[in-house]
Batch of 3 targets.
Target 1
Amino acid sequence: MDAETLQRNADNAMYRAKSRGKNRFEYFIPEMSASMAQRLELETHLRHALERDEFCVHYQPQFDLQTGKLVGQEALLRWTNPKLGSIAPDQFIPIAEENGLIVPIGAWVLLQEACRQTSAWRKAGYPMRGVSVNVSAVQFTRPDFVDTVRDVLSESGLEPSNLELELTESLVIRDVRESARKMEKIRALGVQISVDDFGAGYSSLSYLQRLPIDILKLDRSFVEEFKTERGSSSLVQGIVSLAHGLGMRVTAEGVETEEQLELVHHSGCDKVQGYLLGRPSPAATALSSSDCSTSLRHHRTAR
């Protein structure tokens, strides 16, 4: 085996290890070559996707569990390539984070789409409170991130209180002190902060008192386990009680059945989203969700 082939095989094994998490190693196997070729093709197209206008944002409705009203939308990035077709976010976002493309892509989602669109909806008189946008670790740790958020709000005309930034639990506990410092600056702008996928595996509850958090978004595994795990409902009630005691609100996501909707309502969650109430859809159709509102009203009436 020549040196060039050895280096290429080592790179393939390295990328496989990185894709499966940190602090691990992988032995090279021939199948990795095909996988690496697919990755390189994906990355090549990804580098030009923004300039070729291949991205779009879909919006998933969020409802107030007490009033049944639409109160917001979560902005979700979608990518369709002319050659590769529709690519799932979990396929291209990790690559974008590794090569830094997530920074311009994230700015586009935040400014040119999510905030601009929400500002237009509110000016048109639609009764919705705001939009939530996912923020990656690469974006959040950049020194200019707070300035970017400030510029986004200024250029889009969206009120800061109508923007919610979603940070993952694993991100905020990497360096609690630094996270708290930056989160305080974001909140000083008037922007709300939520912790996404809460309970996904870390959940050192001590950080909840140390970080400026407005909203906890329950990991969807809690909702999915309502049917199979008898203790899930009690656990969710405990988390909701703790969050409310700390002045936070709780959003349940991944609700797909009437039973799950009833259980998150009974558990005291404040907001809810999921396929039962509305699938992510393009801006042109995102607010034509009368069926979503009807489903929630029917649940409330039946109680």
Target 2
Amino acid sequence: MPNSPLPTPLQDLGSRRFSFYPPILNLEQNEWQYRRATWSEVVVVNTQSGEEAIIPRAFLGEVSIIDHPVIIVGLRRELEWREGAVYPHRRPVVEFPLAVNGNESSGSDIPRPAHRGPAAVVNIRLEQRPAIRKSTKVAVATMLGAIGCLIAADLAREVQVRQRVRVTAQDDYTSIVGKLGQPAADRTVSNYRFLAYPKRNLTLVLTGQRRYLGALDTSGHVVDSITLPDGTNSAELLRSLPPF
């Protein structure tokens, strides 16, 4: 019996939706779900078109689970959708015609004067710009590096919070309070219980049986959902709930 392929970070997402960064070119909808994996590739499905895309494992980067707006899956290469499949994106190289002295096939009817004698010597003064350009490049690189460090630190902080506190469909009110503490607000609307945690930018939703259904951010957007017993996802149900 052949060995099973090694697990990928996408398998931990289950049926949860995510977006690629950078997004795959030539596709309007950047929302995907994990389908299956082989030793060398991962198969995902576009939630809008239903088309499957095969992504080589070598192109997959880190998975950052954040509260909003969606889960981000990094790509190590810029990809594009072409003819029903995913390919590495290659930027075209534009060649500009040489304009030095023109050429004989330019179609010009202007006669060229015959060159006689040595060419004139022209003194060219080199301006002292390389040092200025070099310092500018160093400053820009330093600024971009600082911004990148801030973004990486923020993503790492979000991932650590979600890894320390994992809420699943098996959690109820008691276990959620044990993990997150007492909510800042607790309200029941239309047989659904809303537990507000403003410091985490989260509102957890429980069903009438007091089981975890999913989570919303402070703007009411779905940031987490579960697979219901009938096989559907709870995201659509969360979007239809009355405002908290």
Target 3
Amino acid sequence: MNDFIQPISEEFNSIFFVKGQNRGRYPYSHSLLINDCLFDTGISSGFMRKLKRTHAINNILLSHWHEDHISGNRLLPNAQFYAHNNDKPVIEDINLMNGYYLVEDNMEQIELYTTILEGLRLQNTRIDNLIEDDMQINMGNGLKTKVIHTPGHTEGHCSFLEINSRVAFLADIDLSSFGPWYAGKDSSVIEFEDSIDKLMRFDIDIAVTSHKGIITGKSKIRESLKNFKRIIYDRDERILENLSEKTPKTAKDLRNLNIIYTYYTEYKTYELFAEEIMINYHFEKFFKQDLIQPKDMGYILS
């Protein structure tokens, strides 16, 4: 067996962790394979071709529309594709991505995304079957997966729990040290928090995430979810510390302070752009909580 395909459970020998190229770092992601059902296709074109040689893949469950999770769709033309209705439009028409990433009026960001999408050879994918919260999907060999709608990252983002093995695919509730990402048109920091809380109500023995990998043990998974959510609270505190009761501040004023990105990479221009969007989502949350109030195109503490 290829070394990027790993059995996950001694008891359930038809469940595999499928590593993404470059340890699942963007623009790649990890996947989960249960019998002939693959969760996301962003492992890389080379890995996908190798996977197809050893495993029949007839069904694809897409967690959401982001390019690093659907880039291998084109290599599986005969498979049945599943996705949530809220993410279906973008998967079926990738020309909508610029609008969903809120870069449609920013030529620098459009050029960056165009380069990335062309490099991934992204194509439109027809969604054959819609999934929704609490739906159960037969995986074969007595295995059955429960759909858990977990919006916040995208509006249609879903996690999945195989009921018998208690193996979950959490997708981009990825439990990474960076924390939650919610810089899209269909993102929400409030919904992201709710989705993390929702997952903590499930008994999960093994969690697979898109960019961190495998986490084993109920208590460790719960603690990882709590730590992941705590990153949002830490961001809350850093933003509020930079606001005052007199001088209004905008999200643009607060970007470049490492509030979201603890360090900036070669993609700094985009990271600053995304940081501003995410800070604005925190402002929306604070306003609903009556912690801030608008003043002169910015916000002050209430």
